[in-house]
Write a structure and sequence with these properties.
The structure holds 3 protein chains of 3 kinds. Helices cover 35% and strands 30% of the residues of chain A. Chain A is α/β, with parallel strands linked by helices. In chain A, helix 6 (161-177) links the parallel strand 7 and strand 8 (181-185). Chain B is elongated, with a radius of gyration of 18 Å. Chain B starts with 10 loop residues before the first helix and ends with a helix. The chains are: A alpha/beta, B mainly alpha, C mainly alpha.
Chain lengths: 287, 127, 237
């Protein structure tokens, strides 16, 4: 059970701002969705948390200690990364063995159980695994790591629908039996929308949103009707998407609704519909 | 059981209501065990915490109780309680929107009542 | 501390495969020499280069093994400090193991009656087991950390700097030659004089222990640079 505090973290690469002043807390026993477009800075953030990159400013603490060059802190975190770090001739079972060496709480039996469920052959060389099976290999390591924080970076890349289902099932069972902090950075939001408790959205290196899912779902809604009426209602509100078809206008708003708003909607004869999480994220991350 | 992510209703509430529905239908009988929150969370791909919230709601309403070390069971009298709850909510959930829609379509009160009577007759004839 | 131990273990494990490769090359080498010697006795052909093979091999281990291990360990909760010490220790252990192995191989070959062409006996004119091992430890460790240094230097450099590093030796030797000519040969004289003393040749009997000590000292300085380079090393895309 660990808490991670990210304070004013910024990172530049060759004169581009990859991350701008990110401040965020990852509380124990929560599943976070880390969402954003390609190149938004999600992987950079995960790499800084796991001491692979250095922030240009700001700090990251886990249970009050810095994560930088700190073996004791880093062993609490497991990064299921996209980049292949497994040396040329390592077999899956050797990968499991060495991960166990570096992570004292690693559960080897559980790892082999999962390998059997996913039909991952442990005698195979890691470099010979397909993209999908490489993802399966690393997510198994993550689930069995025994770490109190697991960071999944695009865990379902290349996984077919059956394996994705299996992953979600194992993830939920694992989390249910042994609460921990889980961060899932992914594009395929709809499939895991129900599993997420909090959403973090990063857009062009900036933190756009960090809220519980229910709250986000309540804040996002669509009003449609006659365009003059819609415009009357949406004046001054946080509009994230607009579509017009003749006199019919559909506007998506991201803001809390109060009683006055509800009455106004009735008066103006507007139709109000909820928004799918995936669509909400797309609208929030569009330029 | 079907849960709707983009609905207005929070998931845990939907889940609690689905559970009640199944208890009412007799799928989960009184004094029998209901699936654990882990099982449910896995089956419906929801967060275990959400499942817990739904279950705790029903525990608060005295519909389910926890047997330590074993699991969760449907309390005796649960069906009655649920029925009573639903009856109270009937007005809010059904009558209000019915009257609203009727107003939109200019259906008079008399016509509404006639429709209800017709419906009840048909049900009776079918039985 | 625990982490350093595990990391050292891992590094040694990665060296294992490569060690087997080197051993097999040497074994083949010996086999050929033995066969030739017995087929053509008195031909004066000797079993050479077993040690040279190892010199080249261990240099490449330092050069090529560092980065993959670095990435792997960084991805397994090991800090750069710990990775540094793991390298120091594992490379030392590797050097010792190979020093003993090579000395044994050389004495084995000579016992078979085959003439050896190897650096150590040539330079120090003895076949003392201990001094041979000590000397080889010095050479091996120096070579492997130089490989490591070159690897780290390239890893930390931008493209431009990498070109600069590649050309540096040539430019340096060119510069030294020019300076040497302007001092009428005095520069190279003093450099060679220094090397002679450092490698233990200044006395009447060549001293491998002094040679080993100097090489280890130099290796230590290089490792200090390696520490500075690894401290701020970040992963690349």
């Amino acid at each position: 059970m660990s808490i991670i505090e990210i304070k004013n973290v910024s990172k530049n690469f060759n004169n581009t701002n990859a991350l701008k002043n990110i401040s965020l807390t990852l509380e124990p026993n929560k599943i976070y969705g880390l969402l954003g477009r390609n190149g938004a800075g999600k992987t950079t953030l995960l790499n800084i948390i796991t001491n692979k990159l250095f922030a240009n400013s700001g700090e990251i603490l886990i249970d009050g200690e810095t994560v930088v060059e700190n073996d004791n802190a880093q062993v609490k975190i497991f990064h299921v990364a996209q980049k292949n770090i497994y040396t040329v001739n390592m077999k899956v079972k050797e990968g499991i063995k060495w991960t166990q060496e570096f992570y004292p709480n690693f559960n080897k039996n559980y790892a082999y159980e999962l390998a059997a469920k996913f039909k991952l052959h442990t005698d195979k060389k890691i470099k010979d695994l397909s993209t999908g099976y490489y993802s399966i290999f690393t997510l198994i390591l993550g689930l069995a790591s025994g770490a109190s924080v697991i960071l999944f970076d695009e865990p379902i890349l290349g996984l077919d629908a059956n394996n994705r289902e299996l992953f979600y099932r194992e993830l939920i069972t694992n989390y249910s039996e042994q609460p921990k902090t889980i961060v899932i950075s992914t594009h395929l939001i709809d499939e895991i929308a129900d599993v997420l408790e909090e959403i973090i959205i990063i857009k062009k290196g900036e933190l756009v949103l960090a809220q519980p899912v229910d709250k986000v779902m309540l804040m996002g809604y669509t009003v449609s009707g006659d365009c003059t009426n819609v415009e009357k209602y949406t004046l001054g509100k946080n509009i994230i998407r607009e579509e017009t078809m003749g006199r019919l206008k559909t506007t998506t708003i991201f803001e809390n609704r109060d009683r006055n708003d509800k009455e106004q909607i009735k008066e103006l004869d507007l139709e109000i519909t909820p928004v799918k999480l995936q669509d909400l994220i797309i609208s929030l991350t569009n330029s | 059981m079907h849960l709707n992510m983009s609905g207005d209703k929070p998931i845990f509430l939907q889940f609690a209501e689905e559970l009640e529905e199944n208890i009412l239908k007799g799928i989960f009988e009184e004094e029998t065990q209901i699936p654990s929150t882990t099982e449910v969370a896995v089956k419906f791909k929801i967060n275990p915490a959400t499942a817990n919230r739904g279950v705790n709601l029903l525990v608060d309403e005295d519909i389910i109780y926890k047997k330590r070390g074993i699991g969760m069971f449907v309390k005796i009298g649960a069906r009655e309680k649920i029925t009573a709850k639903r009856k109270n909510a009937f007005y809010e959930n059904y009558i209000l929107s019915l009257v609203e829609e009727a107003k939109n379509l200019n259906i008079t009160q008399g016509e509404i009542i006639a429709m209800i009577e017709r419906c009840c007759q048909n049900e009776h004839n079918r039985d | 501390m625990n982490n350093i131990l595990t990391a050292t273990k891992y590094q040694l494990w990665t060296f294992k495969y490569q060690s087997l490769l080197c051993l097999s090359i040497i074994a083949v080498n010996i086999l050929i020499s033995v066969t030739v010697t017995y087929l053509f006795p008195g031909s004066g052909i000797s079993a050479g280069s077993s040690d040279l093979v190892t010199f080249i091999w261990i240099f490449f281990v330092g050069l090529l093994a560092s980065t993959p291990s670095f990435k792997f360990m960084l991805g397994n909760a090991v800090s750069r400090k710990s990775i540094f010490w793991a390298n120091i220790f594992s490379m030392a252990i590797l050097s010792v193991a190979w020093a003993v192995t090579i000395t044994l191989v050389l004495s084995f070959i000579s016992k078979l009656g085959i003439k050896i062409l190897a650096l150590y006996p040539l330079l120090y004119k003895n076949s003392n087991f201990v001094s041979s091992v000590v000397w080889f430890i010095g050479v091996f460790y120096l070579l492997i950390v130089i490989g490591w240094l070159i690897n780290m230097a390239y890893y930390r450099s931008s493209k431009r700097m990498a070109y600069a590093i590649s050309f540096a030796p040539f430019i340096l030797s060119g510069l030294l030659t020019i300076i040497n000519q302007s001092t009428h040969g005095k520069l190279f004289e003093s450099i060679i004089g220094f090397l002679v003393t450092a490698l233990g040749f200044s006395g009447t009997i060549p001293n491998p222990y002094i040679g080993s000590f100097s090489m280890l000292l130099f290796a230590g300085i290089i490792c200090a640079f390696n520490y500075l380079l690894i401290r701020k090393a970040q992963i690349k895309d």
